[in-house]
Structure formats: C-alpha cells, structure tokens
Amino acid sequence: MQRLADFLDGIARVTASIVRWLALVMVLVQFAIVVGRYVFGVNSIAAQESVLYMHAALFMLGAGYTLLVDKHVRVDVFYAKASDATRRRIDVFGHLILLIPSMLALAYWSWPSVRNSWKILEGPISVGGIEAVFLMKSLIPAFCVLVLLQSLSLLIRLMLPVTSSEKAAA
Q1: Structure confidence by residue, pLDDT tens digits, 44-55
Q2: Is 134:118 a contact under the CB 8 Å cutoff?
Q3: Which is nearest to 155 in space by CA: 62, 89, 101?
Q4: Is residue 43 part of a domain?
Q5: Which residue of 9, 18, 41, 94 lies most exposed, with the fewest beta carbons within 10 A?
Q6: Where in the sequence is the domain holding 22, given as residue range(s)?
C-alpha cells in the first residue's frame, strides 16, 4: 500500500513540477501585454486569454500537489488543538465524507459540459481569442482526477499503522 501511495504522490509531484513553470510564463506574458499596450499601443486578445488559460491550468492542475504538501485551505477551529489521533479521524472524515464525494459530484455534473465543448470544439471566449475553450473546460475533470488520486494517497497513509518514528516526531 505504501508503494501505491508513493506512486500517487509521484503523479502530483510530476504534475506540479511541470505546471509550476506556468507561473513564470504567465508573469512574463502579462508583462509583455502591459508593455505592448502602453508602450507600443499594441493589444492582443489571444495573449490576454492565454494568461487566463495559464492561470486556470496552474491552479486546477496544481491542486493535487497542494493537497499533498498540506497547503490547502483548512478550517483550524478544531484541528489545531486536536491530538494526532483526532486529527487522523478528522482527515479520514474529510476525505471520505467531504472531499471525495465533492470531487465525484463535480466530475459527474461537469462532464456533459466538457463533452459538449469537445464535440463542437468550442471556440474563443472573446472575438479574436484562443479557439480552445474545450481545452480549458477539460481542466475540470483533470482537477477532479488529480485531487481524487491525491486524496486516495493520503487516505492510504492515514490507514497505515503509525510508526514509532512518527510517534517520536509528534
């Protein structure tokens, strides 16, 4: 089971190592847009939309890694002062009752829109924009799959027995 969890973690790490570069590219493109508009009087709707696409991809595809490194949003009202055993129970509850059903529902309810978008190869958001809204909509099921895989990995780790080194670290 440990090897499966490590493999699933690897998917999140590889995905993050690729999409993290979108942050740099996004800043450079946005800088070029501003310089082009205000210095040279040139504007490109496609370039503006590319920033939107990169932003969407960065956050949607990076969500699984965010969950892996425990940097996701958490309500710490009870969690912060809870014992390790209680935290494990809260995490299991959160994955099984909240996160996994939410991701499955989102994937289920968004799939018809994604499928239809691919069927018609849905065009740009704005006139003159990138003719690939279907690709951006595909980020929704990709997001769901990546978060579900990472949730499964974390659940596997939560179900593994606590080692003495983990007890000592706590």
Answers
A1: 999 999 999 999
A2: yes
A3: 89
A4: yes
A5: 41
A6: 2-161
